[in-house]
Amino acid sequence: MCRQSEALLDSLGLPGTFTIPELCGRVEERRDRSIHLIARELPVRAPHGLWVAGEHADYVFFDSSIGPVRQYQIIAHELGHMLFDDDTAAADPRELVAMLSPEMDHSTVQKVQQRTTYAELAELRAELFGTVTVRRTQTWSSLSQSRSAAPEQLARLIETLEGSAPRP
């Protein structure tokens, strides 16, 4: 499934490293629909991410209270559902949309995709797509390629944190 995700990203014409907005742009082109990313502080028991297919656009809701790498993974997970054309979970779409985005016209909601369980193939595939995507994003790449401190600075830091006493 990881190779399937890599192949799907490659089919979008993305470079080896890209941004989430670039990915969204390619998915919009492929689906001929705009995508709106909507950050919300979600209730504890709410899904961390949610894809709502409106009549003319797609809406991806994600938790604003978590770190950016996890947000990107959630966004990519939902984009994976779009690209794989996954079926929707059993949910009342209008109720979910009303909770997450009261200003949205609920009558235009066509489809809602929310995470149910990773035992389902669609969820596992979307989760792997999200993970593969995050590994190729510029944000993640820049984190993994950041310069390390000089060895003497690291030694001083370790000494400060652990104290100068020898370790048991």
Task: Report what the structure shows.
This protein is an alpha+beta fold. The chain has one domain (2-162). Helices cover 49% and strands 15% of the residues. It contains 7 helices and 4 strands, in the order ααβββααβααα. The chain has a 4-stranded mixed beta sheet with strand order 1-3-2-4, sandwiched between helices. Strand 2 (49-54) and strand 3 (57-63) form a beta hairpin. 29% of the residues are buried. Mean pLDDT is 78; it is low at 141-147.
Quick description:
This is ImmA/IrrE family metallo-endopeptidase. With 168 residues, the protein is an alpha+beta fold.
Order of helices and strands: HHEEEHHEHHH
Helix-and-strand structural type: alpha+beta
Strand content: 15-25%
Please give the number of β-strands.
Answer: 4
Largest sheet: 4 strands, mixed
Rg, Å, rounded: 20 Å
The strand order across the widest sheet is: 1-3-2-4
Q: Percentage of helical residues? A: 40-55%
Global outline: globular
Q: Determine the number of helices (DSSP H or I, runs of at least 4 residues).
A: 7
Could you report the average pLDDT, rounded to the nearest whole number? 78
Through-space gap between termini:
45 Å
> How many domain regions?
1
Question: Uncertain spans, ≥5 residues at pLDDT below 50?
Answer: 141-147
